Amino acid sequence: MTAITPRVFSGAQPTGNMHLGNYLGALRNWARLQESYDCIYCVVDMHAITVAQDPAVLMQQTREAAAAYIAAGVDPEKSLLFVQSHVPAHAELAWIFNCVARIGWLNRMTQFKDKAGKNREKASVGLYVYPTLMAADILAYRATHVPVGQDQKQHLELTRDIAQKFNTDFGRDYFPIVEPIIQGPGARIMSLRDGTSKMSKSDPSDYSRINLTDDAEAIRLKIKKARTDSEPLPETMAALEGRPEAANLVGIYAALADKGGDDILAEYSGQGFAAFKTALADLAVDKLTPVTETMSRLMADPSYLDSVLARGAEAARAIAAPVLDDVHEIVGFLKR
Ligand code: TYM
Fold first, then answer.
1. What are 182-228's pLDDT values in tens digits?
2. Which residues carry out catalysis?
3. Which atom of ligand 1 has the smallest separation from the CA of 131?
4. What fold, for 7-188+303-331?
């Protein structure tokens, strides 16, 4: 059986517009990690159908997600980029992990509770076992590092538990115990309308998020309308405790500028939000316009995107196949 080598895996769902939270919490870090790791980035369409999707829209958004990855700096010449449903190993390994994970573990997943809401009986079974598919995504490549936003932390802990239990149950040190990479002020970007809920694709208010398809005018307008409070900005991030909207805007500024929050406040402390918001809008437009423009250029060439995704899937299948062969042997399936 092959040895474990350092490898990065991550993915995002093609369920709506990619936004600033996805960019700062995930995509931008994915691009940076390509310099030091073998990286595998996946558009997780099988996760998307755990809630109802319009098939035609799903197809469009799957390409759009791939375009966002490339526009954010994922280079298909350096990293593998593909669509989850194109590599059957994900579903196969997920089934085996469904038999390793315990119901009690899944019952504790806060994202399931949030997404299923009050009517849990009506949620799909897929939504419930979503985290076992996520573990399969990562471990089908025996990936060791997973760059994500803060909201995925609990799912990655479950991935670690599944790997550990598999290794213990079968007495083999086969799967690595993955390390989450959750970094900096971009790891948890909140809604522009409510600093206590995260920026999300599913928020009904488009003013809550900056989409990676927004033009400069839309970005400026959304930042101008972003909720704030009436206090001046303080000298430190610690002093923003209890002011979630203000803390979020400073966090976004810091993440975009690649600086610490306190460095930003050193410049704006004692001031209200007017000048700060103008500077933040300028910075956001400056950083996001190249991403937006590349995305729309790529979306105009679907055959290029499809060829990148086909090439990525082929390479991904070649990495996952021997892992699945090993797993079959370990659990006692007859050789196919
Ligand atoms: P998804 O599609 O919700 O989000 C994609 C990535 O963006 C991050 N993110 C955020 N980061 C900071 N602030 C926010 N407001 C924000 N919103 C989203 C997410 O943390 C994520 O990194 N289950 C995953 C997709 C997935 C996956 C995987 C990830 C499937 N298999 C295997 C890693 C490894 C999800 O729904 O992400």
1. 998 999 999 999 999 999 998 999 999 999 999 999 999 999 999 99
2. 115, 198, 201
3. 23
4. Rossmann fold (3.40.50)
